[in-house]
Amino acid sequence: MSASNGIALPRRRFLQILAGTAGALVVGVRLAEAAEPPLPPEWLGNHFQELGAYVRIDAEGNVLIGARDPDTGTGVATALPMIIADELDADWNRVSVVQLGLGIAAGANGQPQWTYGRQRGGTGDSIPAAWADLRQAGALARWLLTQAAARRLGIAADRLRCEAGTVIAPDGRRVTYGSLVDDASKLDLPRQAPAPKAPERYTLIGKPVGDVDAHAIVTGHAKYAIDHHEAEALVAVLLHCPWPDGTLAGVDPAPALAVPGVVKVMLLKPEPGQQPGHTVIAPAVAVLAENTWAALQGRDQLKPEWKPGASAAASSGALEQQATALLDGQGAPTTRVRDNGDVDKAGKRAARRFEASYYQPWLAHACAEPMNCLARIDKDHASLVVPSQAPQQAWAVVQRLTGLAPDQIEIRVPRVGGGYGRRLDHDYVAEAVMLAKAVNKPVRLLWTRDQDFAHDWYRSASVHRISAVIDGKRNLVAWNQRVASASALAGRGVPADRLWSSEVLPDQLPAGLVPNYRSDWYALESALPRGPHRAMPHLSNAFAAESFVDEIAHLLREDPLKTRLRLIGDPRMIALKNGGTLDTGRLRNVLQLVADRIEWKNWLRSVNGLGIACWTMDGAYVAHAIETSLQGDKLGIERVVCAVDVGRVINPLGLQGQVAGATLDALSTALNLAVTYKDGQIQQHDWKDYPLASMAQLPDNVEVIVVPDDARPPTGASFLAMPTAAPALANAVFRVSAVRVRRLPLMKEFQRLS
Fold first, then answer.
1. Topology match between the domains 14-218 and 316-363+458-753
2. Is 307 left (phi over 0), alpha (psi -120 to 50) or beta?
3. pTM reported for the whole predicted model
């Protein structure tokens, strides 16, 4: 299989959407005039016929399937087409995949109509959001082919079956999809969407399939947004103000303009009243040149004078002190997120009490592909190549800045070089559009690495203080968790009484398992830009909660696995506050699986340290068990086992890759990573200041156990394995060293405490 980048087509007839789930568009009627799905003509040629918004088939039976969600390394460019291909009964060996650009048409009153429904990637919900939609899309294409075959063979359609790109009659006659596609494309559509397959008929879903882009990636042929060029485009690089709320006091553009190839120097400013992520992140001086070298040389000649704003005296250390003061009792919580039973009353009857605090640092996204955007803005058309996780939100930025109609804006989204939530914001798109409009030429905006580190939408630091009450029978009867952090939702149009929702969750473990449970959030104020980050808020809360459970086990002098199993209790279904249920049987199962695989029975006698942790999110369940060694003062991660239960699995090979990758990402984050700021300025500027874990620090292998569960629909998994890796590691470190790490990054704290 192969993939290509989408560009605009001449107008064609295509199947627009008729019905769907969660507001998405799925299958439907043909329109003589409609916006073109941005599929590349080099794939279509003159022979491909359209059998839906996602499916094209040529006369030889080759099948082209579009992947609607941006692939940030999560494998959705493989998994989503697999869903369609299975419903279509296509021969996967004859399927090619193309990454779809933004599908958009002009709807009523000039509002956008999304051709492909929801398009968003790297948020952990692509597969569950697409599950019903894409099955219906594939089922419609199969129905059209079957109807065409029925007419040709003179047999009722319900007596035919499809297999590997062929329609087969009861008497053994076969008709290929390629020979049917012309007739099928001319048929009237059914009044109702055809029913998808019964699960027992799946032939591709659940089978291991390699990533469709893997060959292009490993051979260097994969093309990211940063690789795209236009002959006329000017290259733009930026110098952002070191303070997000600062201003430009002055700059002399002459030295930069004296550099051969530099065309223009101009100032960009955030637009008043716009939400974070919709406009320029901070005041910036832009240098536009005929090539990248000239642009960088010109930027180096600039000596802007920046005037700091109110944040000039801020520091990460001072913010942590503020958080600690709040949790020490100097002020009421901003929001009481959950309050079950009577925590105060339970405390009065306590046989034992225990309290601990856990500290999480600020984090950057540090994407491999820095922010970039290629933008051409003409009078009646805009064309952009954008590494976006949410192209519909990118479209909204472009439309606001240009005033163009929905179908006059074309957005292509090649494979994305890492997202982690950073590309859900589109400040860099706003910058590129502003510059392209100003110079009336295409602009290729490139952020350099230092700008990328210094001007991120960071994950906020947080302090977690948890207290527990244990009765005379060694049962955990009360849990009081207080969290202080600066909300990632501040300034983003979210009501003040919901700002906590990016920081804590009402249903996070052990909520529902402890009879008296309280969760409070304390708001911190910070001028540092904040936004979505991979696995938040699960990542920080799981570290605190699962470390604390381990400390309770140590206090009780018992096996940490036994403590967890007693806390989880017997298999049962517990209703969650935000809908859905907690299945304690599934949670127990993943926990027991990793314990058995790592030979937990030896936890007390092992020379090495064993640590364990479990978690649940969005209907999926995960557990980690980790073995660590200690030679002198050198920590080693010897083994890592992770078990996941995500319901039905689309691509087991892709799932294993996601689990292993998220585990390594979480371990790297826990071991080394932290953003600090002083005098309002970020202190990290390159990888040497923000060091990803080396191969020597990480395990040779991550053992992944996938729980087979075809009875339930699929759930997301792109960051499912993130939350439990860090606490399992910290718990294992305690076993091998007797050093309890409550502050991340772990290596720095371990060295301080050792």
1. yes
2. beta
3. 0.93
